[in-house]
Write a structure and sequence with these properties.
The structure holds 2 protein chains of 2 kinds.
Chain A lengths: L3 H14 L7 H18 L5 H10 L1 H20 L6 H17 L9 H29 L1 H11 L14 H26 L7 E2 L2 E2 H9 L14 H4 L5 H7 L17 H6 L23 H13 L1 H25 L59 E4 L1 H7 L4 H5 L5 E3 L11 E3 L11 E4 L2 E2 L19 E7 L15 E6 L8 E9 L3 E11 L3 E12 L4 E2 L8 E15 L2 E14 L8 H6 L3 E2 L7 E17 L2 E22 L5 H7 L4 H11 L11 E24 L3 E28 L2 E4 L5 E23 L2 E18 L8 E14 L5 E12 L12 E12 L6 E13 L1 E3 L14 E3 L3 E14 L7 E14 L3 E2 L7 E2 L11 E11 L2 E10 L19 E11 L4 E8 L7 E3 L6 E2 L4 E8 L5
Chain B lengths: L8 H16 L17 H24 L1 H14 L5 H23 L18 H5 L7 H10 L7 H4 L7 H9 L11 H4 L2 H46 L7 H12 L1 H15 L21 H17 L6 H7 L3 H19 L5 H4 L6 H27 L6 H4 L4
The chains are: A alpha+beta, B mainly alpha.
């Protein structure tokens, strides 16, 4: 049959390809590595190959192989039940216990603790049951006839593990099913879905780790002992080899698998210094061939006539032979000497802190030496231990970027998911951290958290206008632990203009372009060493590039931001600065996108159902900073208060609850779905309550306030120095949400209120109080910098929804260690590396089983900058997520009742390589030519399969890649700079992204790759007047950049701006 | 010590070769599908093999068999328009439609594979919507098409959306009164074309339109039956692509059972009862088949179809799986709850729209009892049945709309 061939091959190779098998190929590699290491240490390396060949050529090994192949083929022929024996037993037990005792009210335990407890109990139970079964195999003569097949091995290799008689396999599988069923049934009865095993690569972690470390050494000629005290608790490979000795006194010793306690209790523990002289048995009932090994024991056990009965028995029980390993969640069937399936047990997992994040205040004070976040040498090469990138005023000024997504596209490892084309509410992710509303990264302005409520509701619905920024800093490595609450991906700090210290400074600029895009920006300030003041304003208007079907309507926006700073230094050691800010936006934005076909045909189209989309917000900002400078000790303290009110009106969905994302992505042309699609387009009228369009207004008020202080104590000697940083922040934030839905009908392409009352669907208060502290040191030992750090985040959260039972109040504390090292090998070469705990907190009000996002992040790389040559940085990273999470936002495609819910994604890994290079050429004349390039390669994958309510996860299978995480990103910029003019050009490219967790290559419902070209020209007409022209997306490439929230969203089209700047200062 | 040594080794290799040969020749039904998490037992295979030929196709046959009598009855009405026998002929057509509609309500529950929504069902091709799209209906659009009279155009059914044909449109054509369902500003009213037709003209157009719809119903029912007979039955039985193995296919059948939860319980009962998604105290106008008062009978058919799908008709079903897994009591409980729900439906002796109108009326409590009886079935689907058979509850049924 056509499909049978691969199935046979799968069956034969299964024991080597299945991570649950002891002979999984990576564990075999581990075995080879250990064996070689032992041989090297003992000076017997040259004997390894001849010895291995002798073992493999031995008839005993041939029988090992035959028994393995025979077992696999029999399993394949007999198939297996869809309902595993252990599963049947477990479910039956649960139902019976429920019936007899009811659903138990057990003390609430953290999910990891339950998993740990369940895994440990299962592991111990498996180990004990194997010991008992093994003991019986040796003590009961009938069973010994079968078990001696395993013991007749005269040479041992990892394949000997599979050298088991089928009768023994059946018995062991039945044992495994029984133990797993009982333990799992009780655990599931107690904790329901929380009773899950700790796994690695989808298999029980303990089994996998023990297999990799020692499992295959047990059946080998590598005599490896544990220290004597350990061997009294854990059986070493050597002890198991003794068990295989042909010496009569060894036959019934060391019957356990992993734990030695059972042998100690039974008096069968044996510890010996010397390896056995020979392996094997003396009362052998079979030869070195398969048929003999199958039927010899049967003949010995039940006589010739019993062989037929035995064959029937084998067939009858065969299916359980095939399935019990699945049920046990452990290893393959092949019982080893007494059958060593893998354990269903688990290794003690890492204890999870009940932690939330707390933001540690990075301090930033441009112009104050020693207080910068990123210290660079004179060539611009960062001198920090960890990935850190800075985009300075020059670049920001040259390209006049108004879209933060454009700015960050040049930073390797930072990904953005477009939505409105303007970057009004950017979705930024770093190294796999989910990009939804930038909620997984720490965002700061001048070192102060800028998100509306960084703990209670981290989604960044407000983002500062890029036009008033003079620098953007990105931290991705261990340095991120200085800036919480989110350390899993990294931190971004936006630097605003400092108060002038050297007299007056001012600038006025206006520019305009297509789509009636107008920008006005200016600042004026003055100051000296003791005082100063600054006022800055920026306004941006655009009519938008989209057009609404039918009656049309506005699609553009207006944004205004004002910032004032006043500074006074009453004494040389003290500096006070007051910063006030105001922001306002009115934008006609929507959640509703298009079908793929409609976007391809008319990317600037908006459906009639989006006509009422409108976002309006106002923000105030007040910060008072005090810098105390006592020479070696400097302390910066900031009190801050931010307030944001916003209301976003947009289409939430249909009365029928149709998933708009799926509707638009799948673009049906038949069935009921096509009716709904045409209602969105305005070509079909609403006719029933199901077809009513629910126009939601999400009205929210955010407060964020606190006090943060950071002390820097610097002690520097010739060869040894220290910069110790201590930070403390007391922070509070809250969000009050009132969400309503106003039913509308689509009538003749126009949204018309149905007259039914506006319904309040959410009235909620969420609060968070946080204490964050961190200590970080830059310890210099000659050319070596050691940078240990530790953060503490203590978060108290609560949430109350009107009409809903109160959510439990939570208090979580988390310690986040990190350490880095930077070795300045030469003046032009430095090597760095580090590790830190990645963390993203649980928002208040989540279900108890929702866990914080936790990872261990590692990175290492080099920075090279030979004199006169390009500087290059290459850093590899590996983020090992213990639990990656998705947090539902409406913008991320979640439904209203999922808002702010977090979803566990389990274990995942993200790794890659990020590199940047730059050089500044100085050709003849007054020119300079700065060139920069960056490239990032990122791979990600979930390690377990699950089904998630978080739409971007969906039905995940182990190995699936993360959504919205491109594998490749590259960028480059080149400029020709002359005192009278500058000409710059840039390009950025990213590869395709997945809309939902899955496998590459990306398909139609995903996000294709995108190449964007930009250019900018500045002409310095006089010392005061400059003319500028910029173009973004020069090729006018249009593409789907996101399928979220609902449907395909295009990138912005070609945008050309021309303008004039007047003033002695540049941006 | 050893009795036999290596001389017989070649026989072992031959034995292994024979085993491999047997494995190669293994029937596909014994394959263990690649994503088949739980492994597929013979019972699962038998259940899956039964669904197409033993459950869905027979139900489609019964639905198809009702269409010729319906056509004949409509032709009788068409001929009688303007005569004294018009009312009786129309009533006969209405009765024939009711028979056909109720036969469809059996298939209605079985939205597995091609019948299902292309948005939410694995392998869904929206073929159910072509035959019956409720609650996606638009009576005004049907009236507009009645005036435009273009149903004989070759592309009429392909160019129009599902809300102007199918059983739902047919109900409107056969049961609606003389007035149309459109607001005054719609062209058929603003330009007077509806009035111009007059009562007999409207009736004549409706009868002609209905005949075209019945013909299309027959073609669409054939198409669905053909999809099952010509391949989908095997796809489901094998757990083949687009199913990820037999366990996934089993889950797709399990998903089909949840029609009883999301549609029968929530949409057909909870919403009219005012328990869910109803802005008023109760919403009697939201009942299914409002004009024909066939809504309660439709629920009975849904329950009967649930039992058929659950038991696999005369073949293997979930009941057998549960017995095999040692949970026969659960199967008995679920089937007992179906009987309870049918008895509750039988106790309601007025049309559903009347029964739900007054929350204080005794008959309202009877409807609530029917709702609760179905809810008990759903609880077992989401609870013990999903647990025992390692099935995943579909997302739309995971919460409880109550």
């Amino acid at each position: 049959m056509p499909d049978a061939a691969p199935t046979v091959l799968d069956a034969l190779l299964g024991p080597f390809l299945d991570p649950a098998s002891r002979t999984w190929w990576p564990t075999l590699l581990c075995f080879v590595g250990v064996a070689l290491a032992v041989a090297w240490k003992r000076g017997t390396l040259r004997n390894v190959v001849p010895g291995a060949l002798a073992v493999l050529r031995h008839p005993s090994s041939r029988l090992d192989l035959q028994l393995l192949a025979g077992r696999q083929l029999v399993r394949l022929l007999l198939g297996s039940s869809g309902v595993g024996g252990a599963w049947v037993l477990a479910t039956h037990l649960v139902r019976r216990l429920d019936g007899w005792l009811g659903v138990p009210a057990v003390p609430e335990l953290p999910t990891p603790a339950i998993a740990l407890l369940y895994s440990v109990v299962l592991f111990v139970a498996w180990d004990l049951s194997r010991f008992v079964a093994h003991l019986l195999m040796h003590r009961v003569p009938l069973l010994w006839h079968f078990h001696q097949v395993h013991h007749s091995a005269e040479v041992m290799s990892p394949l000997t593990f599979h050298r088991v008689h089928p009768v023994e396999s059946v018995l062991y599988q039945a044992r495994g099913a029984l133990v797993t069923g009982l333990v799992t049934g009780v655990a599931f009865w107690l904790w329901r879905d929380d009773a899950v095993q700790l796994t690695l690569l989808g298999v029980p972690a303990a089994g996998l780790l023990l297999n990799a470390a020692f499992g295959n050494l047990r059946h080998s000629h590598v005599w490896l002992r544990f220290p004597a005290p350990v061997e009294r608790w854990f059986l070493s490979p050597a002890q198991h080899q003794l068990h295989h000795s042909d010496a009569p006194e060894h036959r019934d010793v060391n019957l356990g698998t992993w734990l030695a306690v059972w042998d100690r209790l039974a008096g069968t523990l044996c510890i010996q210094d010397a390896p056995p002289a020979r392996f094997g048995v003396h009362d052998r009932n079979h030869g070195d061939d398969l048929l003999s090994a199958w039927f010899g024991p049967l003949r010995a056990a039940v006589g010739a006539r019993g062989i037929a009965l035995g064959a029937v028995l084998l067939l009858a029980l065969g299916s359980s032979l095939a399935q019990a390993d699945e049920a046990g969640g452990g290893e393959d069937s092949g019982a080893e000497d007494a059958g060593e399936e893998e354990a269903g047990g688990e290794e003690a997992g890492e204890e999870e802190e009940s932690g939330e994040d707390a933001p540690p205040p990075p301090w930033f004070e441009p112009g104050v030496p020693g207080m910068e976040m990123i210290v660079s040498d004179e060539s611009g090469t960062p001198r920090v231990a960890g990935s850190a990138h800075e985009i300075g005023a020059e670049v920001l000024d040259r390209y006049e970027y108004d879209n933060i997504e454009k700015i960050l596209s040049q930073v390797p490892g930072v990904t953005t998911r477009g939505e409105d084309g303007f970057g009004l509410r950017p979705n930024i992710g770093i190294r796999g951290a989910n990009s939804d509303r930038s909620a997984k990264i720490t965002l700061m302005e001048d070192g102060v958290l800028l998100a509306p409520a960084p703990y209670a509701a981290p989604a960044a619905y407000y983002f500062p206008m890029s036009a008033r920024m003079v620098g953007v800093e990105v931290f991705k490595g261990p340095a991120a632990t200085r800036f919480g609450p989110h350390t899993v991906g990294g931190a971004i700090n936006l630097r605003t203009r400092d108060v002038p210290r050297e007299g007056p400074a001012w600038l006025a600029e206006v520019s305009g372009g297509n789509h009636l895009t107008l920008r006005g920006h200016g600042f004026v300030g003055t100051g000296d060493a003791t005082r100063g003041a600054l006022l800055e304003a920026v306004h941006l208007h655009s009519n938008g590039f989209k057009e609404i079907d039918g009656v049309g309507g506005p699609t553009g926006f207006d944004r205004t931001e004002l910032m004032g700073k006043a500074r006074i230094a009453p004494a040389a050691a003290h500096d006070l600065e007051l910063k006030l800010g105001f922001g306002h936006e009115l934008s006609h934005e929507t959640y509703l996108g298009l079908t793929g076909a409609d976007l391809a045909a008319t990317p600037d189209r908006r459906y009639a159902a989006s006509a009422l989309g409108r976002m309006r917000w106002n923000r105030t900002q007040a910060e008072l900073a005090w810098l105390a400078d006592a020479g070696a000790l400097r302390v910066r303290t900031v009190a801050y208060h931010h307030y944001l009110s916003r209301a976003w009106t947009k289409l939430n969905g249909f009365g029928a609850g149709i998933d708009l994302h799926d509707l638009l992505q799948q673009d049906p042309d038949s069935g009921s779905a096509a009716v709904y699609l045409d209602i969105l387009r305005g070509v079909e009228d609403s006719a029933t309550a199901d077809q009513v369009l629910l126009i939601g207004t999400n009205d929210r008020r955010f407060h964020s306030y606190g006090l943060q202080s950071t002390a820097l104590w610097s002690v520097q000697g010739d060869r040894v120095g220290s910069e110790l940083e201590l930070g403390l922040r007391l922070h509070a934030d809250d969000v009050h949400r009132v969400h309503t839905e106003d039913p509308h009908d689509m009538v003749g392409g126009v949204l018309v209120q149905t007259g039914e009352p506006v319904e309040t669907i959410l009235d909620s208060d969420t609060r968070a109080r946080a204490l964050a502290a961190h200590v970080h040191d830059d310890l210099r030992l000659g050319r070596l910098h050691l940078l240990p750090g530790l953060r503490l985040e203590v978060v108290h959260g609560s949430r109350a929804d009107i009409g809903v039972d109160p959510h439990p109040t939570t208090t979580r504390a988390t310690l986040l260690p990190g350490a880095g090292a930077l070795w300045q090998a030469t003046d032009w070469l430095s090597v760095l590396g580090g590790a830190h705990r990645g963390f993203s907190p649980v928002s208040p009000g989540q279900d108890a089983e929702v866990r914080p996002e936790l990872s261990w992040n590692y990175e290492g790389g080099v920075r090279v900058h030979p004199a006169g040559l390009p500087r290059v940085e290459a850093i590899g990273f590996y983020n090992d997520y213990r639990n990656i999470t998705g947090q539902c936002t409406l913008s991320g495609g979640c439904s209203g009742d999922q808002l702010d819910q977090q979803f566990n994604g389990g274990a995942a890994e993200v790794y890659g390589l990020e590199s940047v290079a730059g050089v500044e050429l100085v050709p003849p004349g007054a020119f300079t030519v700065p060139i920069e390039a960056s490239y990032a390669w990122t791979k990600s994958r979930f390690l377990t399969g699950f089904v998630s309510g978080f739409p971007q996860f969906g039905a995940v299978e182990a190995g699936d890649a993360l959504p919205y995480s491109p594998e490749h990103q590259a960028g480059g910029r080149i400029a020709l700079v002359h005192p009278r003019f500058e000409v710059g050009a840039g390009a950025s490219w990213r590869s395709a992204m997945l809309d939902e967790a899955g496998l590459f290559p990306a398909g139609e419902g995903d996000i294709p790759d995108l190449l964007l070209l930009d250019a900018a020209v500045t002409v310095n007409a006089t010392d005061l007047v400059r003319f500028t022209a910029t173009g973004t997306n020069l090729a006018n490439d249009r593409s789907v950049v996101s399928w979220r929230p609902y449907g395909a969203r295009p990138n912005a089209p070609l945008q050309v701006m021309v303008g004039v700047e007047v003033g002695p200062s540049e941006r | 010590m050893a009795t036999v040594v290596g001389s017989a080794d070649w026989r072992s290799w031959v034995a292994l070769g024979a085993l491999a040969g047997l494995a190669f020749a293994q029937p596909l039904a014994c394959d263990r599908g690649a994503g088949d998490s739980g492994g597929a037992s013979a019972q699962v295979a038998a259940l899956l093999a039964q669904v197409g030929p033993g459950v869905v196709v027979p139900a489609l046959d019964r639905a198809q068999a009702t269409l010729p009598p319906l056509r004949t009855a409509i032709e009788g009405w068409q001929a009688a328009i303007g005569t004294d026998g018009e009312a009786a002929a129309r009533a006969a057509a209405q009765d024939a439609w009711r028979d056909s509609f109720l036969a469809w309500q059996q298939v209605e529950l079985m939205q597995i594979g091609p019948a299902g929504s292309s948005l939410t069902v694995v392998g869904g091709q929206d073929l159910r919507d072509e035959i019956y799209s409720w609650p996606t209906v638009n009576a005004c659009r049907v009236d507009q098409e009645t005036v435009e009279a273009e149903w004989d155009a070759a592309d009429f059914f392909s160019a129009n959306l599902v809300n102007v044909y199918g059983h739902d449109a047919l109900e409107h054509l056969l049961f609606a009164g003389d007035d149309n369902a459109c607001p005054g500003e719609v062209e058929i009213n603003s330009d007077g074309s509806w009035d111009t037709l007059g009562a007999d003209g409207v009736a004549a157009n409706r009868a002609a339109y209905a005949l075209a719809v019945v013909d299309q119903l027959s073609a669409d029912t054939d198409a669905l039956e053909s999809a099952w007979a010509s391949g989908w039955s095997d796809v489901l039985a094998d757990g083949a692509d687009p199913y990820d193995g037999q366990q996934a296919a089993l889950n797709a059948v399990f998903d089909g059972l949840f029609y009883l939860d999301t549609h029968t319980k929530d949409r057909k009962l909870a919403q009219p009862l005012g328990l869910d998604d109803c802005a008023e105290t109760t919403c009697p106008d939201d009942v299914e088949a409002l004009l024909s008062d066939a809504s309660l009978d439709a629920i009975v058919e849904n329950l009967d179809a649930f039992r058929t799908l659950f038991t696999g008709g005369d073949g293997a079903g979930f009941d057998d799986l549960l017995v095999d897994a040692g949970h026969g009591d659960l199967s008995d409980r679920i089937l007992g709850q179906v009987d309870t729900a049918l008895a509750a439906a039988d106790a309601i002796d007025v049309p559903l729209s009347q029964a739900v109108a007054d929350p204080d009326a005794a008959v309202y409590a009877d409807v609530v009892a029917l709702h609760d009886a179905i809810s008990a079935i759903d609880d077992d689907l989401k609870g013990d049945l999903a647990t025992v058979l390692a099935l995943v509850v579909p997302a739309e049924a995971a919460g409880d709309a109550d």
